[in-house]
């Protein structure tokens, strides 16, 4: 395993765990962008579609599931938790994230090596496999 990938994965995992602990213990999501968290969910789900078609390693599979799960959990807290959702300030979260999705999808359809679902999803999230 590449040491840089391991350090990157663990740093990312640690930051997400800290974010979830902050939300859970303080019962607040003040200062966190729901729109950014929704984009993370979209990126991880589209990026990790190969989870169902290809097996690389146990580590890879677990990390993909953890990143998808934690991202969905953060969005769930911010949208549906009865206490936490009240602390989300929609007026301060002004990023128009829905304007990013259609251009990315169009680029994925136009720029690809082969026109397959797995190839198009790679360019949709702008990361090679």
Describe this structure in words.
The chain is globular and about 45 Å long. The mean pLDDT is 87. The chain is built from five helices and no strands. Helix content is 61%, strand content 0%. The protein has a domain at 3-89. α1 packs parallel to α3 (58-80), α2 (34-47) packs antiparallel against α3 and α4 (101-110) crosses α5 (117-124). The two termini are 16 Å apart. With 129 residues, the protein is mainly α.
The oligomeric state is: single chain
**Percent range for β-strand residues:** under 5%
Order of helices and strands: HHHHH
Please, what is the average pLDDT? Answer: 87
Backbone CA Rg: 16 Å
Biggest sheet statistics: none
> What is the tally of helical segments?
5
Determine the structural class based on helices, strands and strand pairing. Answer: mainly alpha
Kindly state the number of beta strands: 0
Helix proportion of residues, in percent? 55-70%
Distance between the termini: 16 Å
The geometry reads as globular
Secondary structure elements and pairings:
Layout: H1 3-26, H2 34-47, H3 58-80, H4 101-110, H5 117-124
């Amino acid at each position: 395993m590449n040491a840089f990938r391991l350090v990157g994965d663990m740093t990312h995992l640690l930051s997400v765990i800290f974010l979830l602990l902050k939300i859970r213990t303080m019962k607040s999501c003040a200062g966190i962008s729901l729109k950014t968290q929704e984009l993370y969910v979209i990126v991880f789900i589209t990026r990790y579609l190969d989870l169902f078609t290809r097996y690389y390693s146990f580590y890879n599979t677990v990390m993909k599931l953890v990143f998808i799960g934690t991202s969905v959990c953060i969005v769930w807290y911010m949208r549906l938790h009865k206490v936490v959702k009240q602390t989300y300030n929609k007026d301060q979260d002004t990023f128009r994230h829905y304007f990013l999705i259609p251009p990315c999808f169009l680029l994925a359809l136009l720029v690809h090596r082969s026109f397959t679902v797995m190839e198009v999803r790679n360019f949709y999230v702008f990361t090679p496999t």
